[in-house]
Amino acid sequence: MKLTEKLTNAFNEQIKAEMWSANLYSSMAIYFQSMGLAGCANWMKKQAEEELEHANKLIDYGVTRGGAIKISAIDAVPCKWEEPKAVFEHVYSHECHVSELIDNLMDIAIAENDKATQEFLRWFVNEQVEEEENAQAILDKFNVFGQHGLYCVDHELGKR
Ligand code: MG
């Protein structure tokens, strides 16, 4: 059974969202690089790579299932933040938003009665729990140590 048109369109939207996320994290990496925060920049670059992997996972599955998979234009991403902590607040809120997108995609797979796609999307559902948790853990460090914690956070994120 091929991917339905509805699911194909939803996959194409999600591929676009994952690529937009990759660009967002690359933009955040540039912000940190220009501030000399190499550890935070390293974390963002790894995050950007992961987002491209997410996009490729969706592409591979969509093509395997005979969907008309397309890459569309990716909108511009933000490039300015008030302070380092605000960047990680943005990461957290963005990942919560992506979790909603994945949940919506799952809802469509359920509505289309496509069991294989529901099974495939379970990985993304679990991945989002981890994404939110990772962002929250970094924010917790900022909250405990304040701006003085920036050095510790930068050092730790350099190890990712
Ligand atoms: Mg993702």
Give me a quick take on this structure.
With 160 residues, the chain is mainly α.
Can you characterise this structure?
It is a single chain. The chain has 160 residues and is mainly alpha-helical. The protein starts with a helix and ends with a helix. Helix 3 (84-111) packs antiparallel against helix 4. It has one domain: Up-down Bundle (Ferritin). The longest helix is centred in the N-terminal third of the chain and has 31 residues, at 5-35. It has five helices and no strands. It is elongated and about 55 Å long. The mean pLDDT is 95.
CATH architecture grouping: Up-down Bundle
How much helicity do the residues have? over 70%
Order of helices and strands: HHHHH
Helix count equals 5
Computed CA radius of gyration, to the nearest angstrom: 17 Å
Question: Can you give the mean pLDDT?
Answer: 95
Instruction: Detail the poorly predicted runs.
Output: none
**Highest CATH level, the class:** Mainly Alpha
Number of E strands: 0
Largest sheet: none
Topology-level CATH name: Ferritin
Total discrete domains? 1
Question: What proportion of the residues form beta strands (DSSP E)?
Answer: under 5%
